[in-house]
Structure formats: structure tokens, C-alpha cells
């Protein structure tokens, strides 16, 4: 098995290597400076002799104009050792020996000191690396023991705002997102199970009743068959909604040009029967608008918004649908008063606020949650406002038609909760 050094060991080796390199450079410079200084101090050695000097006097010939004057030169004495070597050469050789010995001792002692300090630097580097990597150890330990039952735990690393604290804070933020996602998934699964159990129970009851009474008349069987069909239809709508919701939450949507105005007109046409049954007044303000995304998902978004505005309205009410520049879609409707602080709950799966929102014939509680998910998958901005007179004002602003490379990554839609007046 190939040896794989840990990051702590690698950091320690890097610290030790850098210290050795810096120490070697420092010792080399120190050696060069000391040697240069010693060489400056070396040179001819002058010898001073006190007292009379002996030597041979050499008389010079008489120079005209200097009658009666005798001149002579006394040669400097030449000192030698007992073996005949000039004492200057002996002193120079002794000086060179002392310099060489000093430089040798300097090198030896410096190497010994460098080795000892290198060992100390390795030990200190190991300790410093361990202390610096301690937050990473905490992150690793926390990640190893994470499960869906303890996602509430956080590192909460203190200290200065350095790279490690930024990493720990990012890890805590990731845990918060995971906790929210797991909680949402747990709630979604529980709600979906409950919603599916109801139509399945109805179907089973109808079948059991029909089987238990062999004398059931054809008319009764037709009634039970109609009820069974309604239960099956509800199950199909629920499963279809779950599939659409799961697909939109994946984020990988096609990048095709979609005519938003045509999608809005189609949604109004599909709801024409319900609009007529409720005596609703429809105001169309459909202008050219093109968005980039999945045609199926965009049409489902528009259809769900229009269905929500039509189904959760009041008799004789109104619905207004607008499309405009930059792919903006706005759906406003009259209806029951919705508390402003509960508007965001309408965009959660299976969340209903009023009795009229519990009618299974009108939906399964996934319409607006699909709207939010589709808007987020397309990088759109979703804003829902509660009208003081009743009803909702919902605006979706997905990105305008742009080249695929320039399309931003999907973002979570924003919900702005603020009352606004009617149109």
C-alpha cells in the first residue's frame, strides 16, 4: 500500500524544510562575512626592535659641497628563528592557522546548532500544524457523526474571521440547509402518505361494500363506480402533482423559448367552464412575453396560478391575468381574505388555510407549491401579496429569453408578503 502522508505531516515537513533552507542561507552568509573580516585583518607584520642596532656601516663617497661630512646607512636588522626562518613568515603562517581553525569551528558549531534547531522546528511545526488544523478535525468529527437525527448540531467556531472560521461557518450554513431540507422532505412524505391514504381507503371501502352485498343493484354499483372513479382521479392528480414537483425541484430544466402569452391564454381557455360556473369576470392584459425554460413546466406554472385564482374565488368575483416585458406574469383575483402572515404557507405542499381549500374535487394542495418550485427551477422571482379586500396578487418574473449560456443558475424564489390594493 502506497504511503499517503497526512496534511499535518506535510505541513510539518514544509515548516522544517523552510527552516533548514533559511538556516543554511543564513549560515552561508555568516561564514562569508566572518572569512572576509579575517582576511582584512591579515597582512605583513611589522617588528619593532628597541635598543641599539648592530650592523655594518657603509661609508658613501664625498659629495661636492659637503666637505667634512660623512654619510652612512644602517641596514634594518633581520630577525629569524632558531631554525633560520624569518619571523614574519612564521607569524603569517600562525595567523592563517588561527583563521582556518576559527572558520572550521564556526562551520562545525553552526551545523550542530542548525541540526538542533531543525529538530526543534519540526516539533514546533507539528504542534502548530495540529493547532491550526484543529477546526478541520472538528469539522471531520461532526461530519462523521451526522445523521438525520442530529442535523441541529453546529460547530459555532470562535476566533478571528480567517479562512478556517469561514469554512466552519460555511459548514454550519450547509447543516442548516440540510436540516431544513430533511425537515421539508419528512413533512412532505408524511403529508403525501396521508393524502394518498384517503383516496385509497375510499376505493377499498367501495370495493368491500360491493363485494359484501351480492344483491347490490346495478344502480348502486354505478353509484359506487362513479365514487371509485372520483377517488382514482384524485389519486392520479396527486401522483401527477408529486411527479411534476419532483421534476421541477431537480433544477435541470430544458432551455427552450416558451411563449408566455400563449400559455396564459391556454390556461384561461382550460378554466373557462369553472369561470362560467362561478360567474367570474376575466380581465386579460396579455402582451408578448417570451421566457426560456421547459414548456411543460412553464405551462403548468401558469395553469396552476389561473386555477388557483378561479377555484378559490367568490361568486361573481373577478380574475385578472397579465403578461408583459421580460417574461413577467401577474395573476390577481378576488376571493376570501387571506392573512398576510400566512400567505407563504399556501406555497407549501398540502397546506390549506380555509375550508374551501380542503375540497378534494378542487385540488390536492400541490398547485402553488409547484408554482414556487417551477419558478425556482427557472431562476425566477415569485412574489405573493395578500389583498386587503380578499384574494391574492401573485407575480412571477422569470428571466427573459437569452442565450442558454447566459441563463443564471436556478435560485430559490422570494415570497414578498405585503398587502396591495386591487387592480
Q: Could you give a short description of this structure?
A:
The chain is of the alpha+beta class and 423 residues long.
Please characterize this protein's 3D structure.
With 423 residues, the protein is α+β, with helices and mostly antiparallel strands. Among the domains are: 163-244, Helix Hairpins (Orthogonal Bundle), CATH 1.10.287; 255-406, Histidine kinase-like ATPase, C-terminal domain (Heat Shock Protein 90, 2-Layer Sandwich), CATH 3.30.565. Helix content is 52%, strand content 10%. It contains nine helices and nine strands. Strands 4-6-7-9-8 form a five-stranded mixed sheet, covered by helices on one side. The protein has a two-stranded antiparallel ribbon with strand order 1-2. A two-stranded antiparallel sheet has the order 3-5. A hairpin with a 3-residue loop joins strand 6 (318-324) and strand 7 (328-333). Helix 5 (218-249) runs parallel beside helix 9 and helix 6 packs across helix 8. The two termini are 74 Å apart. The model is unreliable at 47-63, 355-361 and 400-423 (pLDDT under 50).
Which characteristics define this entry?
five-stranded mixed β-sheet; two-stranded antiparallel sheet; Helix Hairpins; alpha+beta; Heat Shock Protein 90; 423 residues
**Proportion of helical residues:** 40-55%
Q: In the CATH hierarchy, what is the class of the domain at 255-406?
A: Alpha Beta
In the CATH scheme, what's the topology name of the domain at 255-406?
A: Heat Shock Protein 90
> Alpha-carbon distance between the termini?
74 Å
Contiguous low-pLDDT stretches (5 residues minimum) are: 47-63, 355-361, 400-423
Oligomer: single chain
The largest pleated sheet is described as: 5 strands, mixed
Number of helices: 9
Shape label = elongated
CATH homologous superfamily descriptor of the domain at 255-406: Histidine kinase-like ATPase, C-terminal domain
Query: Helix and strand succession?
Result: HEEHHHHEHHEEHEEHEE
Radius of gyration, taken over Cα atoms and rounded to an integer in Å = 48 Å
List how many beta strands DSSP finds: 9
- Structural class computed from helices and strand pairing: alpha+beta
Strand content: 5-15%
Mean pLDDT over the full residue set: 76
